[in-house]
Structures are given as C-alpha cells and as structure tokens.
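Quick one:
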Amino acid sequence: MHTSDLGQVALLIAFPIALFGAASAAIGARRSIPSLVVSGRRSVHAVAALVFIAAIVLLGAFASHDFGVRYVAEQSSREMPVRLILAAFYGGQAGSLLYWLLALCLLSVLAIRRHPSSHPALLPYVAAALLVIEAFFLLVLAFVASPFERLPFVPANGRGLNPLLYDDGMLAHPPVLLAGYVSAAVPFAFAIAALASGRLGNEWVLAARRWVLGGWAILGSGLLLGGWWAYHVLGWGGYWGWDPVENVALLPWLTATALLHSLAVQERRGLLKVWNLSLVIATFALSIFGTFVVRSGVLGSVHSFAQSAIGPFFFAFLGLVLLVSLALLFARLPRLASPATVETLYSREATFLANNWLLIGVTFATFWGTIFPLISEAVRDVRVAVGAPFFDQVNGPLLLGLLVLMGIGPLVPWRGAGRATVWRNFRLPLLGGVVVAIAAGIAVGPAQFLAACVFGVIGFIIVGVGQDYWRAFRGQQRAASSGPLSAFITVLVRHRRRYGGYLVHLSIAGMAVGVVGSTFFKLERQVTLQPGESTTIGRYALTYRGIETQPGSGVQAVTASLDARTGDGRLLTSLAAERRFYQGWESQPATQVAISTVLPWLDDLYVVLAGWDEPTAAAVTAGRFVLPSGEPLAATFHVFVNPLVAVLWLSWPLFLAGTLLSWWPDAAAAVLAPVSRRRGVPAWSQA
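Output:
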C-alpha cells in the first residue's frame, strides 16, 4: 500500500459519513431526537478531519515528488520551486476540487460552532445542507476524478505546472477565488434551514448576513487578484476581458452584492423576504455553475480545464440544488408575505430595490452572453462567440446607473423624507459632481465627454459620503464636546456597518476611476526596434538596449531591456520584458510583462516582448533556446500606456478595510436577535 492510498481511503470513508450525518441531522431536528442531532454535528467534524488528512497526503506526495501519483506527475516536476507546491495542489482539476471541499469543510465546522446556543432550531438543518454538498464533492473526488489515482509506472520526473501558473500570483488568486465560491454555501445552508424548519423571520438573516458579507469580500478579492494576475501575466494589456471563466466568477458576486443591500431592507422594514431567499439560492447555484463551467471545459477559456467526465455530475447537482430549494421556497410562499411596502421613491429602501434590479440586469446580461455559444450550438449547430463589445454595450449603462445609485443611497433616509430634506442632502454632492465633471471635461477635452460624466458621478459619490460623515462627525463633537480624533473613532465604531459600507463605496469609486482611465485613455502600439532605436508613445520615449538569455533551473528567460524617458530626455525607469521557456513546456512560452507606474500621472508603462529575430545561428539545444553571442537582434514589442490602473489596485485595501468594519459585530444586533429555542426542538449546544 502506497502512502497516497491513505488519501483515497480517507475520501472513501468520508463519503458515507457525510450522507449519514446529513440524514441524522435532518431527521433528528424534524423528529426531535437529540442523539441523531449529535450524530449530525459529529459527522461535520469527522468529514472535515478526513478531508484534511486527504489534503495533507496530497501535499506530502508533491513534497516527496511521488510521480507514481498521476496528478503529482501532471502538475509538478523536480525543478519546480518549493513555494509553488501549493499552486500545484490546486493547479489541476482534481486538486482544485479537493481544495474546494477542504475549504467547505472548514467553513462548515466554523458555521456550526460559531454560536451554538443562538440558533439551535436552524443549525441541525444547516449541518444537513452542508453535509449534502460535501457528499457531492466526495462522490466526485472518490469515484470520478480522484487526485490519488496511480500510474502503472513511476516516471523519473513530472511534467510540471502550466507556465501560466508559475507566477507568484497563483499563490493568492485561485485559493481566494475558490474560497469565495465555497463561502456561498453557508448562507445557502441557513436559508435552507429557515425554509425546512419554518422559521422564516429575521433569525436566518441575522445568522447569515456576516457570512454573506465575508464571502462577498473574499470573492471580490479573488476577482481583483485575478484581474491583477491577468494584467501581469497574460500580456494583452488589460485586466478584464469578459472571458467566460471571468464572467461565471462575477455572477455570484453580483447577486451577493444585491443580497447585501436587500438583507438590510428586510432587517429594517421586513420587506423582500422571498426576494432575499431567492438571491441566496441564486448565489449558491451560480457558484456551482461557475465551478461546473471551469471544471467541465464546456466553454473555451484561457482559465478553464480541458473537457472532462465530471461535467454531467455538476450539471445534475446544480439541477438538484435548484429543484429542492425552489420546491421549499414555493411551499413556504404563503408565510413569506409582508404587509409593509415601499412608501416613497425618496427612500433608501427604494434606492436599494433599484440597485437590486440593475444588479440583476447585469447578472442576466452576463449570464446570457456567457452561455449563448452553447445555446447557439444546440439550436443551430454553430457555436457563436459573444465578445467584449456586447458586454461593454449592454452592461456599461447598467453599471453607470449603479454608480449613480451608489451616490444617491447615502443621501436618502429610510422610509423617505420630504423634498426639502432631500434637496438639502443633495445640494453639495450635486455641486461637487458638476464641478468634477467640468474640470474633467476641460482636462480631457470634448471628445471624451462620457468619461468626464463618469468622473462627475464619481465626484458625486465621494462628496456625498464625505458630507454624511462630516455631519455625523460634527454632531458627535458637539454632543460629547470631544476632540477630532475621539469623535472620528466614536462615529466609526458606533455606526460601523454604515460607514464600513461607505468605505466600500469609496473603494468602488476608486476602482471606477481606474476602469475609466484605462478604458478611455489607453494608448497602444506595436513596434519592431533594433538595439539603440527608440519609439514614442504618449509623453514617453522607449529606447531598446538589447536582448539576452538568462538560463535557470528548469527555465530559460529571454529578456529584452529598455529605458523609458520623458519627452525632454529625462530617464524615468528601466524595463525588462521577458519570455520564459519552462522545461517540458517549450512550445508554450510564458510572458513576463514589464510594468512601471509613472508618478505623478499614474500612467502604467506596459511593455510585452512579442518576438525577436531568429537568425540561422540561433538554435534550440537540449531544450534551451540559444541566442548567438555578439549578434544584435531586433525585437518586437507591444507597448501600452494604461492611465490610472494603479488606482484600481490601490482601492483594494480600502475595500477590505470597509468590509472588515462592516463585518465587525454590532452590539445592536443582539437586541434584534430572536430567541431561537422552541418546544420540542433539541438545543444544538446541548446536543
């Protein structure tokens, strides 16, 4: 028996335990049998322990170069740096599914242990739902796509990672993005628990809100890290191309964004109960759909895996999720009606509702454009691709509308206000937006009128948030006679959900600045240069110095060096653009983009080595590309100037800070939390 077999055995044992635990927890809660509820809770821990053992075994197989394991041989080599073992772990299909399952198990343990005495009527159903999801992934990993399958022989070396995955960004982007997918399972489980138990008030909302917020932030961070990786590695000058895999990752983030706003409406006004449950179901279903698209390979993408046999399993599971959850929802519809209504358009709940409709519009347009190739192939036997122009033209106006609503939301109160109050709140932000739009229009010229308008909307958002905070800050100073620092901290702490959300709004506004700058004002050209020759692009001049090879262990880099100068000849920076040839992947060289952010303009100089002369003296020797010594070579470069992209990346810390502030528990929530004990339902903490 090989060590790797221990991982396979752990998965095989975990599968029936997950099924047993799900059944025990659900039946125990339904029939008030404490012993079964105990079994369900213990099953969550047992499955997590077994999956953790399987993950450790697979990591050990990578660390020991056990190339008898097919997955290890396909994803690693002896020359691969040790730091990339984690990237190899989730770099292929089976390993990424094991990581998905491991993250789900850890979140499941946290979910059932976080407040064991707060929601005893819900937690058994939560455990049952999570265990069913775990059982599905165990089924796939144990019987369909095992990461522990052994080869009939042991090769001397493995193939190694795909060259695109050698970038250090792979240590962050995939695990964060997958964790974001996984995190949708916990709010979904709470929603299913509410529907199954009949506890349809705000209890599940209060239990799930922070899970929704945390998962939303993780998935959003995964999307940003993915954009950063694409920008630095793929070499096409951008960070978002409406690729199918990018789109399916965006979909659950959009519905989760809508959910965060509509949950606030339910907490405050008791509205949108059916809508919120529908959004929770949709968010989890879209997470499974995204996993299905990437893992099945049904849609071509630079990010997706090759077509495999697991696609039908995911499709069937997605159908089961929708069937069961929607059946429960329809069965509870009579009890979900709310007597409250949106009383006026001049209210925050009306703004949030409009925000939801626009977000769902973007979600539907993105979903439709993503799956349209499959629909066209099924109907007309011709796969019609939908490109970036469709998404830009359809989603662009909707996203601009969302920015406008983001500015309006903080200016209107709950339940509405008179027109005089509304106008008093709007005057300064509107003035600020107009001033910014005019200043931007003067700076960029009439040809970029739309960009100036978007900058004006961003100014409207920033001034509106600043005005709200200033009023609260001054009010705190006057009420407590406190100093500026004390008043600043007090306002943040007492109203952390509100101002954490406003910080997130500011971060989104910052990201919008980056998107507008790099979309409307990008410069691009392709040029071939001899050593010593220069080219100009915008306010910059680039001088090509030469090209050389840099051999390394398992990789050879071909590096072209350039100097970047201002128009008056002042040296700004030196750039090194590379193409890297990894052993076993010589036919698929990886791009290493040269990027330098130039202050104070915040322009990104972005240079891609597209090719070079290959004289007859050049040869490939023992898998290495050899350049003739002493012979100057012309090189071809793809050069971009991307204004303000740095603002996009710099907005991420503000996004995280705002999310963390909003996520910080609010003492007031304890007042709203309902008593969760019910006669005949075993207390989860005592089970």
